[in-house]
Structure formats: C-alpha cells, structure tokens
Amino acid sequence: MSKEVYKSGFVSIIGRPNVGKSTFLNKVVGQKIAIMSDKPQTTRNKVQGVYSENQAQIVFIDTPGIHKPKHKLGDFMMKVAQNTLKEVDIILFMINAEEGYGRGDEFIIEKLQGTSTPVFLVINKIDQIHPDQLLPLIEKYNNLYSFKEIIPISALEGNNVPTLVDQIKAYLPEGPQYYPIDQVTDHPERFIVTELIREKALHLTREEIPHSIAVVMDSMEKREGNTVYVGATIIVERDSQKGIIIGKQGSMLKEIGKRARTDIEALLGSKVYLELWVKVQKDWRNKMSQLRDFGFRD
Ligand code: GDP
Ligand code: MG
Ligand code: K
After folding, report:
1. Region G1: what ranges (predicted)?
2. What is the CA(272)–ligand 3 centre distance, in A?
C-alpha cells in the first residue's frame, strides 16, 4: 500500500446574498472549527474558515465583490475577486434551490467564463423543494456552464454536506498543512504574530528580498509561568533568499527574532520564547504569496 498523500488547498464560495454561504461554512468547519477572526488590517480577501482532517485541509477564502458592481470601488473589488478566483483550487458556486435563475447568477456565470479553476454548482436549501424540482434546475444550469460537479445540499440540515466535502478533497492538490489542526484558532493574536515576524523580516532585508515571503505559525502555546512559546517558519522561494534571511552565522534570523519577540511580548503581555525556522518551498509559496497580494494573510 502506498502512503496516503496530504491534500490541501483553497476554496472560494460565491453566490448571491442569502443563498446560504455562511450557513454552509459554519456547518463544514463547525466541528473541527478554526474560524478565522478578522485581521486588524482591512483585507479584501480573508480566510473564513479551515476544515482539517488527518490527510486533508480545506482553507475557505472569502471572495467579496463577486456581484454586479455599483460604483468604482465595486469595479476594483470585482477585479480582485476575479483574480482570487484564478488562484483558488476550487470555486463553489452556490444557488438557492427555491429561487429561479436570476440576473445575479447571470453576472457570476459571466465572470466564471474567464477562469479555468474547477467550479462546482452547489444547489442549497433542497429541504425546501420537492425532489421533482431538482432535475429541471440542474438542466437549466448545466446549459449555462460546464460545472465539474453538481451537488444538491441542505446546509441547514446537513444533507449531502459530507459528500460535497469528499468531492472537494478529490479535487485538491497535494499540499502542506497550512494551519495547525490541534488548535482552535479564534485568537486574532496568532495572525498578528505571524504578521509581526513577516514585517521584521521584510524590514531588515528590504533590498534583497522581494515582498513575497510567507510566515506560517507552527505552534503557539503557554508554557511554565507566563511564557508563551511561539514556533514559526519563514517561507522563501529560493535557497539564496534562505541564506539572506538566516544571515552570517544566523545573525539576520537572530535579529528578526529579537525584534519580533519584543513586539509579540508587547502584544501578548507575557514573556515570549520565539523559535524561527526558514524553509524553501518552491511550489506552494508562489500560490500563497499571490493570495497574499490580494489581501490573504496566513
Ligand atoms: P449567505 O448570505 O449566502 O451567507 O446566506 P446565509 O448563510 O446567511 O443564509 C441565509 C438564510 O438562509 C438564513 O436564514 C439561513 O438560515 C437560511 N439557509 C441557509 N441554508 C439553508 C438550507 O439549507 N435550508 C434552509 N431551509 N434554509 C437555509
Ligand atoms: Mg454570509
Ligand atoms: K487568516
């Protein structure tokens, strides 16, 4: 038997207001919950939740602005949303089974034509319709777009939600575990901490390092006394960048750690033991930093 690979990736849920996007998200991440708090900075796209299990992790990304723009900003948001749709691994296009096809859907489908990302049609609120109504609905949407999967669910009652999760997993690429599974990550501090580390690294290496590094939190826990242990990994794309971040005999990494620790201690109000690693990740770092450009923060 071959060893099972770890699969992970990013999923965007789009759809008209009130189709049940939030209800679905809560249902999926509800058990092994890792709902992300809002970032201190305004982010245009943010992680809404993370679903984790032994061999897979699904990171749900919020994609605001995928609706008919009413003003200039809406226009801009639309561009951001479209770019995000290109970066995610799967798009869930959610509709309300009770409602007919509407102009909002038309607009979204138009936008979907421009992306090669797999799109699932998720027909929600099937608890509200007679089974006979389902087939015509599927036919209607099938004629408009070539969906990779069409999955009827009830986000409220949970019907078919596990099937949808299985289908998502089937489409996810092999990838890293972006978030620790064993931690309830509803503490906004966790993200501010990685941002502080990233900030110091960028600050100290301004010239040499493009703004595209990522910081991933490996662990953060209270230990004896009031000391908080923080372990984090700075991810770069090339070996040369790793060398710069580490510096002569580790001097750069030490300085990054020293400055970050000062800020983190101020943030948490406790003594901090900070351990930093540097890792080269050619493949997925790229994707993560592109998402970062759109406001994504790890
Ligand atoms: P969003 O705007 O797309 O995030 O939609 P929400 O998740 O906020 O849901 C809008 C409304 O639809 C809420 O009142 C939900 O309780 C309801 N809703 C969501 N999913 C279902 C479902 O599967 N069945 C039924 N009957 N109601 C649902
Ligand atoms: Mg919502
Ligand atoms: K986040």
Report:
1. 15-22
2. 22
What are the pLDDT digits (tens) for 238-284?
Answer: 899 999 999 999 999 999 999 999 988 887 778 999 999 999 887 65
276 C-alpha vs ligand 1 centroid, how far in Å? 42
Relative to the CA of 16, which ligand 1 atom is closest?
3
As for the ipTM of the complex, it is: 0.96
User: Which residues define the annotated binding site for GTP?
Assistant: 15-22, 62-66, 124-127
- Fold adopted by 7-171: Rossmann fold (3.40.50)
SS3 45: coil
Exposure b/e, 255-269, CB count within 10 A at least 16 = b: bbbebbbebbeeebe
Tokens representing residue 117 in the block: 């990302």
Over the stretch 73-111, which tens digit does the pLDDT of each residue have?
455 556 667 777 888 899 999 999 999 888 888 888 988
Helix (H) or strand (E) run with residue 67 in it: none
Distance 17 CA to ligand 2 centre (A): 7
Residue type, 164: L
Q: Which of 156, 157, 160, 164 to mutate to test the pocket of ligand 1 (most atoms within 8 A of CB)?
A: 156
pTM of the full structure: 0.64
pLDDT value at 226 more than 90: no
Topology classification of domain 188-293: GMP Synthetase; Chain A, domain 3 (3.30.300)
